[in-house]
């Protein structure tokens, strides 16, 4: 296709439409301070283990030095995508059909001339990325940037969730902490020992593991006038001994009565499970209380 020089306004609109399409598939677009003609594409740390650059979008055909009195000569827009990122989504080969060129580092690249029909090819590219991200992250991708409570819908009157859901439990605990005025950060890697971090003071951070606050079956037939719960910090005691060093408190959440309990990790040093009484009994002081966070390291 013949390269033509386009007015800046037309080229800018084309450039922004490409950025808009990539933003829609939850990739961050950032302009480096030193950049004259390009933006960088990054992954979101809420989905991936970290935010890393996986692409660039750049105006093409500009020659330097440029006479500021003359129109900016823009011929095309160039897109580059990192091969490692595409392979992690299992879409490298399909993407190579749309971006046929590559560089020495394995990044796929292609030129897009400033024509409406070229946006169709961009949409095919972003659709491939979206499909790959959905397969990799499932509901986490589809609900990204949305209140996680949407996963509870439809809510049927006078009923509550019966099955424990880890992702929604983390969201619920985050919401409870935020309602108490705490700043909350959630980890993107579900294999991390902790799920939430809360800064306390200027330097300290409380690392919180969220688990199920289960009804304790051992008290099923108890005559106690209140509920008794238990929290399992990890699936096995062996894993617990390895990973508890990276946790400060364990918060259990119960979907049926919307209750929680917050226990210090020291309680799990020699036991896999800890019992929590709704009132009067063991750990009752930590039921529906953020006492351990308020008194952290005091």
Q: Could you state the order of secondary-structure elements as H and E?
A: HEEEEHHEEHHHEEEEHEEEH
The rough form would be described as elongated
- Structural class call reads alpha+beta
As a percent range, the share of helical residues equals: 25-40%
Task: Return the CATH architecture of the largest domain.
Answer: 3-Layer(aba) Sandwich
What can be said about this structure in brief?
The chain is α+β, with helices and mostly antiparallel strands. The chain has 8 helices and 13 strands.
Provide structural commentary:
- The protein has 298 residues and is α+β, with helices and mostly antiparallel strands.
- The protein has 2 domains: 8-142, no CATH class; 148-294, 3-Layer(aba) Sandwich (Trna Endonuclease, Chain: A, domain 1), CATH 3.40.1350.10.
- Helix content is 27%, strand content 24%.
- The chain contains 8 helices and 13 strands.
- Strands 7, 8, 9, 10, 11, 12 and 13 form a 7-stranded mixed β-sheet that branches. It has a 6-stranded antiparallel β-sheet with strand order 1-2-3-4-6-5.
- Helix 1 runs parallel beside helix 4.
- It starts with 7 loop residues before the first helix and ends with a helix.
- The model has no long low-confidence stretch (mean pLDDT 87).
């Amino acid at each position: 296709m013949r390269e033509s020089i386009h007015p800046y306004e037309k080229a800018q609109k084309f450039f922004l439409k490409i950025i808009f399409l990539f933003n829609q598939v939850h990739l961050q677009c950032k302009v480096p301070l030193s950049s004259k003609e390009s933006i960088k594409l990054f992954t979101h740390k809420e989905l991936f283990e970290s935010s890393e650059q996986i692409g660039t979008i750049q105006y093409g055909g500009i020659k330097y030095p440029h006479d500021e009195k003359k129109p900016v000569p823009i011929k095309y827009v160039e897109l580059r995508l990192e091969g490692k990122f595409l392979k992690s989504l299992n879409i490298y080969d399909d993407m190579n059909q749309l971006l046929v060129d590559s560089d020495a580092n394995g990044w796929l690249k292609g030129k897009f001339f400033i024509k409406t029909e070229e946006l169709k090819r961009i949409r095919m590219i972003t659709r491939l990325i979206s499909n790959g991200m959905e397969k990799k992250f499932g509901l986490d991708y589809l609900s990204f940037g949305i209140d996680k409570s949407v996963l509870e819908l439809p809510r049927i009157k006078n009923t509550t969730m019966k099955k424990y859901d880890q992702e929604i439990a983390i969201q619920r605990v985050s919401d409870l902490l935020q309602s108490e005025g705490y700043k909350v950060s959630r980890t993107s890697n579900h294999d991390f020992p902790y799920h939430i971090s809360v800064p306390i003071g200027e330097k300290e951070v409380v690392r919180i593991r969220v688990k199920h606050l289960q009804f304790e079956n051992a008290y099923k037939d108890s005559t106690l006038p209140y509920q008794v719960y238990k929290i399992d910090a990890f699936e096995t005691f062996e894993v617990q001994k390895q990973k508890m060093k990276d946790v400060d408190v364990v918060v259990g959440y119960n979907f049926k009565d919307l209750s929680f309990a917050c226990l210090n990790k020291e309680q799990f040093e020699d036991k896999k499970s800890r019992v929590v009484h709704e009132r009067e009994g063991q750990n009752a002081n930590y039921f529906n209380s953020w006492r351990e966070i308020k008194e952290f390291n005091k």
